[in-house]
Structure formats: C-alpha cells, structure tokens
Write a structure and sequence with these properties.
The chain is of the alpha+beta class. It has one domain. It is 33% helix and 28% strand. The protein is built from three helices and four strands; from the N terminus they run ββαβαβα. The chain has a four-stranded antiparallel beta sheet. The mean pLDDT is 92.
Length: 137
C-alpha cells in the first residue's frame, strides 16, 4: 500500500529495492492502527489488507524514485502519509508469489546472489504469465 516509505536516514539509492519482512511477528494492535490510518488517507479506495503477514522472508520489490527530506516532501505531497525525516518515493510494487527466506539487515544491504537470482526468475515468470493473460484477453 505504502508508496511513501518513511526513514530516519537518507539514501542515494535509486532503482529496484527488494523488500524483506522482519523475523518478528507483527503486533495486532499495530496492524489495526496502520489499517485505520490507510483507510483515512485513502477513503475513496477499496483497500484490501492481507490476512497474513509473512515473517523472515523476501516479499517483493519496489522502484525507489526519490528520497526526499521531510520539508521537500511536505511541499510536494501536502498531507502525505509520512512524517519521517526522510521519505522514499516508491513506484511499481511487485509482490513475489514465492517467499524466499532471508535474514534481514538494517538499512539497505546486498541481497544474497542465489536469492536474488531466484527472485528475479520469479518476477520474470510472473511477467510472462501476465503478458499471456493479456494476450488471451
């Protein structure tokens, strides 16, 4: 859901960023609070939230288009969803159909080459299937 991801630190990274879940199971109160927040931010959208939040795995990827300091973010996105010191502006979220186990690390890190290769193959296969479905009409 989040297209604007808040962080306390800046990054110069632009392009694909793989997203991994933490090993710690999510707190149900936090989940309810975040779902309520997104319903308030996007009242016109029919949001569907996950019923299960996998842990300790690679979830998918996004494209990082920019990383803005909060002042600039507020000018470009008044009332935006993040109040963090820095905000990643993300696009093209892609969820993996297979969940690869990973040990997440703090900040941005190099993904294991074997996991990266498998995840890329998964995305390529998903793109082929989607293209075939579009072609079949």
């Amino acid at each position: 859901i989040s297209r604007h991801e808040g962080r306390t630190w800046y990054t110069s990274h632009r392009g694909r960023l793989w997203i991994a879940s933490t090993v710690k199971p999510p707190d149900q109160d936090v989940i309810r609070s975040l779902e309520a927040q997104y319903r308030a931010i996007y009242p016109d959208k029919n949001l569907v939230f996950p019923t299960f939040y996998p842990t300790g795995c690679l979830l998918g990827c996004v494209n990082v288009d920019d990383c803005l300091p909060q002042e600039e973010y507020q000018k470009l996105y008044p009332g935006g969803e993040s109040d963090s010191p820095y905000v990643f502006i993300c696009s093209n979220p892609t969820s993996l159909k297979l969940r690869f186990p990973v040990k997440g690390q703090h900040k941005i890190y190099q993904l294991d080459k074997t996991i990266h290769k498998a995840a890329m193959k998964c995305i390529q296969n998903m793109a082929k299937i989607q293209a075939e479905q579009v072609k079949a009409g």
